[in-house]
Amino acid sequence: NDVDSGKTSWKSPSNIALVKYWGKREHQIPANPSISFTLDVCATTTSVSYTKLGEGASDFSFDFRFGGRPKDEFKPKIRTFFARVEKYLPFLRQYHLLIESSNSFPHSSGIASSASSMSALALCLMDLEKQLDPSIDDGFFIKKASFLARLGSGSACRSVQGPIVEWGDHDEMAHSSNLYGVPFSGEVHSVFKNYQDTVLLVDKGEKQVSSTVGHGLMKDHPFALRRFEQAHHNLGRLKSIFAEGDLDGFMAVVESEALTLHAMMMTSMPYFILMRPNTLEIVNRIWDFRRATGLNVCFTLDAGANVHVLYPEHEKAQIERFIKDELAVFCQNGQYIQDSVGLGAQRL
Ligand code: PMV
């Protein structure tokens, strides 16, 4: 098939890990399996306009615009991504690509956008591949999009689908793969349906340590092997927790995973701390509130200072009021984002 030009657009959500991916091997292969909730509101919309070049170019030919403006600072990251995926998308140098992206969440809010943006871009590139080879079926399309997204940013492979996605080889989950994310296939109790995630924006500053560096520090980490075993164990526990609707078990695994992620950062060499004083204020207030009310609210953390507050939909009213009245003061400019578990990326 010959395709001269066209345009494709995808909206891809972010995701929040429940069992964390921290540490990787060559080619973006995770050192341990992970599982996440796909989000709904926090998302990146990307469109790719492609035009066939006269001859294959010697370098990748593309422009990048973010929020309507050229954003050349992002181009090296995209070029690195193209270099990694070219083997799997051999037509890449034959097209000029105009990539236009925007995020639903405030710019530089400290919300990692690499998962949603790499997932959206990978899906757009798969659309171009499908134009060239219409025999590609939907199952292959989605798997390969996740495979490509992983090469952009590991956790991005969990953003293509929803609502719960696992990634990484694991004994109890035979279909799970190191190469791409797959929807969790186990039973999920109704209490976990439409789970809520309020993202508290504690610190909007640039991260002092990138996740690439953080993953790298797991290589010689004194606790790495025990940590990787623990992730396997926690994934196994979550499987029965989801089936049984065990909220206490869920909160224990999820909070322990968040604190372990940060404990790995604090015990690597060099060591670093991404939590801020307000992160700990919020954690303590969540614990006090949970003890006082018996409501099922817990937290998790990404590689940053922001706090994700997780709770079941049926407790939404009381917990939203608590967040507004007691936690918002610890956020930068009182900002937080009301999100919930979503179904994955959508073609626009
Ligand atoms: O996808 P990366 O390389 O930015 O790594 C992200 C790692 C964490 O967000 C900290 C955990 C996870 O599993 O998403």
From TrEMBL:
Keywords: ATP-binding, Lipid biosynthesis, Lipid metabolism, Lyase, Nucleotide-binding. GO terms for molecular function: ATP binding; carboxy-lyase activity. Residues 13-174 form the Diphosphomevalonate decarboxylase-like N-terminal domain. Residues 199-328 form the Mvd1 C-terminal domain. Gene3D superfamilies: 3.30.230.10, GHMP kinase, C-terminal domain. Coiled coil: none annotated. It comes from the Bacteria. GO terms for biological process: isoprenoid biosynthetic process. This is Diphosphomevalonate decarboxylase. It comes from Pseudozobellia thermophila.
